[in-house]
Amino acid sequence: MTFRTRLLLVFTAAVVASVGLVEWLVFRTTREAFERAEAQRVNALVEQFRREFDRRREAIVRAVNGIAASDAVLNIAIASDRAPYYGEAAALASSSGLDLLELVAGDGAIISSAEWPARFGYEEEWLVPCPPIKASENICGPSGFQNPGVFQGAPNQAVTGLASGTDWKSRGAFLRREELPDGVTLALAAVSEMQAADRKVYVAGGQRLDRGFLSSLVLPEGMRVLLYRNLSSGFSPGELIAPAGGVADAQTLRPIIAEALQEPREFSRTVGSGAAAETIRALPLTSGKELLGVLLVGSSRRDLVAVESSLFRTGLLVAMVGILVGIVVAYWATARVTRPVRALAAGAAKVAAGNWGATVETTSTDEIGQLARAFNRMTRELVAQRERLVQAERVAAWRELARRLAHELKNPLFPLQITVENMRRAHEAVPEQFEEVFREGTGTLLAELANLKQIIGRFSDFAKMPAPEMQSVNLNDLAREAMRLFEPQLAHAGIAPRLELDPQLRPVSADPEQITRVLRNLVLNAIDAMPQGGALTVRTAAQNGGARMEVSDTGQGLTAEECDRLFTPYYTTKTHGTGLGLAIVQSVISDHKGRIAVESQPGKGTTFRIEMAGD
User: Fold this and answer.
1) CB-based contacts of 224: which residues, under 8 Å, 6+ apart?
2) Which of 58, 120, 301, 475 could form a disulfide with 277 if both were Cys (CB 3.0 to 4.6 A apart)?
3) How is the chain split into domains, by residue range?
4) How far apart are the C-alpha atoms of 203 and 191, rounded to whole Å?
5) Domain 471-612 -> CATH class
6) What is the largest CA-CA distance in the chain?
7) d(CA 226, CA 220)
8) 528: nearest Cα among 480, 575, 584
9) Are strands 508-510 and 534-543 parallel, antiparallel or unpaired?
10) Burial of 580 per CB tally in 10 Å (0-12, 13-18, 19+)
């Protein structure tokens, strides 16, 4: 991965992380604000319902008390025949704004009923005095009741019924199920008494808790109020009402109603998903311990979903713009950084290729510019040092050449001098023996002159190596030929030859004569390193599209210092030789663009490793 790509990824990751963090914080803040506003709206609607409920309770109590104190009810109370008052309840209910009204005699018989006229003369069970009970019992049976709170948890006042004398005045309005000719309804009712001498009349009136009651509530936009009337066992969709009529999603709200019926408490749940999601708060309506209804206040989450969707689109747009800006900035930044770096890399490659005077142009004053100027100073110093080094090496090379040449020529010159002197003395002292001395002397002179010629030839070969004539060469074949050539010498020296050749080895481009000369030189060195015998191994192997060849022996080995100087001209660890053999080997391998290295340890043998490029 390039530096530009990494920098681009860093910029992009930073932008995405920043935008994501801001988006998350905005989402969280917006949701919390919406939840608070929604809770406030729901609380306001619940308080409005409570206030309306209390207002209606008070209105019903006033209406019922007013009817009980009217002359009409007084006349009914003192009348001996109450049949003529059969329809009086309907007229009184209509004039007082009540939906429900019953006039009940002290014995529980219905005198008049506005909602169910046909019940004239029937006994109103819930108003019938309780029969005598034990002192330990404080509540009537099914026909007795408790004063309810409107919402679950509101204070209740337990009463025992008429047997103990119910205080209807302090009881106020309460929730109860009311039977009608067409079914059962939920009503808010109140009871008042009219006492005339020894006669008593109960006035029980109220209003239905239905759509009309819900329509009186002022609903903010996005909210709705529903009422479930628990008038029968099990869930009944028809008992879930709204101000405008039935509720289409009654089955969706069924789990919430079932939870409220099972455990009467105030709670909130969210139904639906996306823009159709809605938060529903359930408020149980109880009468004593009996749950008669559940008020549902719904708050749409459409606005929150719309805001979150808008925030998401905005965040996505900002992220895309940020990524685009990050790409542009990364490209600009990396161009400023990588362009001079690439120029430095190109300059370094030129220096590595041998152009030590390569420089890098720069106009910047930042750290990259300082690096480029330092590089240029380095190359100028390298050129100067190279010139000094070349001069020093030339002087050292000529000195070493002169020393080695003097040393090599000195050895054959001394026998030449002795031979000439002996011939002169023999000519002067014993002329008769001069011919024999002359023949011996000329033989010695010719031998030493041949030695001088060989020495001069070696120096000439090292000084002027011919250019390699490249062609496709199979190193396995060259290795076999070299080992075959030295078989007699290896057998005489007690050395076991081994060939470990890679059959899959590909040909290489090389001069076969020069590579053969290299192999012979290395084999001779190995033979010299094993005077007591041993093993000589030549192995080949494919490597990186080219070839590797190794020549290993089990001789005495070399020290690290000897390995470092082994390819230096005129350096030798032998008692004979010019020290030019391995220098020539290194020169040949270098001309073939290859590499040669040596691995050795004292007592563990030596391995020469040659690496060459493929054909």
Assistant:
1) 242, 297, 298
2) 301
3) 3-51+304-343, 69-131+140-206, 213-300, 373-463, 471-612
4) 6
5) alpha beta
6) 202
7) 14
8) 575
9) unpaired
10) buried
H/E run at residue 34: helix 3-68
CA 425/CA 2 separation, integer angstroms: 86
Helix (H) or strand (E) holding 334: helix 302-352
pTM comes to: 0.48
- Give me 207's structure tokens: 């209003």
Taking the CA atoms of 193, 196, 200 and 201 in sequence, report the sign of the dihedral they define. Answer: negative
CATH code of 213-300, in short, is 3.30.450.20
- CB atoms inside a 10 Å sphere around CB 235: 17
User: How far from each other are the two terminal CA atoms of the chain, in whole angstroms?
Assistant: 32
- For 324-375, the pLDDT digits (tens) are 877 787 777 777 777 777 777 777 787 777 776 777 777 677 777 777 778 7
What is the tens place of the pLDDT at every residue in 56-109?
889 999 999 999 889 888 888 888 888 888 888 899 988 988 989 999 988 888
Strand, coil or helix: 496: strand
Whose structure tokens read 């309005």? 173
* Tokens at 256, concatenated: 């919430």
Question: Could you give the residue ranges of the DSSP H alpha helices within 97-196?
Answer: 168-171
> Measured between alpha carbons, how far is 115 from 65 in angstroms, rounded to an integer?
19
